[in-house]
Design goal:
The protein is α/β, with parallel strands linked by helices and about 425 residues long. The chain has helices at about 15-30, 50-70, 85-90, 100-110, 155, 165-175, 215-220, 240-245, 265-270, 280-290, 305-320, 345-370, and strands at about 5-10, 30-35, 40-45, 70-75, 95, 135-140, 140, 160, 180-185, 200-205, 205-210, 225-230, 255, 295-300, 325-330, 375-385, 390-395, 405, 415-425, 430-435. It has twelve helices and 20 strands.
Length: about 425
């Protein structure tokens, strides 16, 4: 009889990637994955611990799993935050931090003996995925060398460790061969890929490839899938990626976490590349690749942020005309050095600034979507229901950007590429007809 393991995955795409590795190993060893607590013989919870709300959600989920099942193994970022898990839930079987495949499997083996020879292949091509079959996250490195004052991720995940370029490309190739149409490249700092190994040359299919983001993206473009880059800090060498976008080798999409526009605030945040002229860089990118989509995230209400500095951020957005923007009101995170900074901004002002920024950006994004009416777009179909198909364009990453709604699906299936004409738009999404 197979041994059944329940699994709960919380947090960001990097945590999802870790979950997929654990699930793949569980299946490789013959464990059955079950979606219900009552059918499971133990439960693994992969947690998030970045902000207070995520910590609370993770602790609540652990408590629920303990109440419903009783045998719980905890891993992920919350496991790296001291003894908070053990203090809150002393009944858990084991606790480990992020990227802890071996520790998780050791704990599973201790409490639920493995049912199968681990060398027997029980995996589908590409391993176990929590995403739909047609797209997948691909993590190229772990950890981060930066010391941003609002962030505790380096303390949880450690310094930058780049995966061997041959391993990354082989995994990408396996995923595409298994039917993946879009690869979403993730890490804590995608631009820094290879810094820790001094960009050494690796090999893929007998071909030399430098451990560097430009060469990695160029090599990956030969696989025939959409390649989408996330978490790209605006270092000067990022300029080298834009011609690849203009040539159609990778998607004309860049997720750049700028966080603010005021030089003093960026310095207080200790942001990498804080001295760069980001407006000039954005103009340069658009000169090379006019169709580029730029997404970014910002923090408002950082300690000491004045009204004038916040207004400078609004002016930046008005000039930059970014396509997609996420924003957070600053929230103290236990262990972050920013908590020690003076002149904390009152909560009501932080929330008011968040609302003002998002109203401005909503107008910018809405106008950019309206400008697409009448254009032809290539889209990737994510789902189909009685009302039609829901797809994404090259400008839309799953779960964080907009959607393209198609009411005449024809013979479309999930995972298909389709050419559509945009016929309408609202503040967030596009509406199209099949060509």
């Amino acid at each position: 009889m197979s041994k059944r393991v329940g699994f709960v995955s919380l947090g960001c795409p990097k945590a999802t990637f870790d979950s997929e590795r654990i699930l793949s190993q569980l299946r490789a060893e013959g464990y059955e994955i079950t979606p219900s607590y009552e059918d499971a013989e133990l439960v693994v919870v992969n947690t998030c611990g970045f902000i207070d709300d995520a910590v609370e959600e993770s602790l609540d989920t652990i408590g629920e799993a303990l109440a419903e099942n009783g045998k719980v193994i905890v891993t992920g970022c919350l496991g790296a935050k001291g003894d908070i898990v053990r203090q809150t839930h002393p009944g858990v079987l084991a606790v480990s931090g992020p990227e802890a495949l071996d520790e998780v499997m050791d704990a599973v083996h201790e409490h639920l003996a493995r049912p199968h020879d681990p060398y027997t292949d029980l995996l589908p091509p590409g391993g176990i995925k929590l995403t739909p079959r047609h797209y997948a996250y691909l993590k190229i490195s772990e950890g981060c060398n930066h010391k941003c004052t609002f962030c505790i991720i380096p303390g949880m995940r450690g310094k930058l460790v780049s995966r061997p370029v041959g391993d990354v490309l082989s995994e990408a190739e396996s995923l595409v061969n298994a039917g993946v149409k879009e690869l979403l490249i993730i890490s804590q700092d995608t631009s820094a890929y290879g810094v820790d190994v001094k960009y050494k040359t690796g090999f893929w299919n007998g071909r030399p490839v430098k451990t560097r983001i430009t060469e990695l993206a160029d090599a990956m473009s030969s696989l025939g899938a959409w390649i989408r880059l996330h978490y790209v800090y605006p270092y000067p060498h990022v300029d080298e990626l834009i011609p690849l976008m203009a040539e159609g080798k990778i998607l004309p999409y860049l997720d750049v976490p700028l966080q603010h526009a005021n030089a003093r605030i960026l310095k207080a945040m200790k942001r990498p590349a804080s001295g760069e002229d980001n407006l000039a860089r954005i103009r340069h990118w658009r000169d090379i690749c006019p169709e580029i989509t730029i997404r970014s995230t910002f923090i408002v209400g950082f300690p000491g942020e004045t009204e004038q500095e916040f207004e400078e951020l609004l002016e930046f957005l008005d000039v930059a005309q970014l396509d997609r923007v996420g924003c957070f009101a600053y929230s103290p995170v236990e262990g972050a050095r920013a908590n020690e900074l003076a002149d904390a901004v009152p909560a009501e002002i932080r929330e008011a600034r968040l609302e003002r920024l998002m109203l401005l950006q909503e107008a910018i994004s809405g106008q950019k979507l309206k400008n697409k009416i009448g254009t032809t777009q290539m889209v990737l179909v994510d789902s189909i229901d009685a009302e039609g198909a829901i797809a994404r364009s090259m400008a839309d990453a799953p779960e964080i950007d907009g959607l393209v709604y198609i009411n005449d699906t024809g013979s479309l299936e999930i995972g298909d590429f389709a050419e559509v004409e945009i016929v309408a738009a609202d503040k967030h999404d596009l509406y199209a007809r099949l060509i």
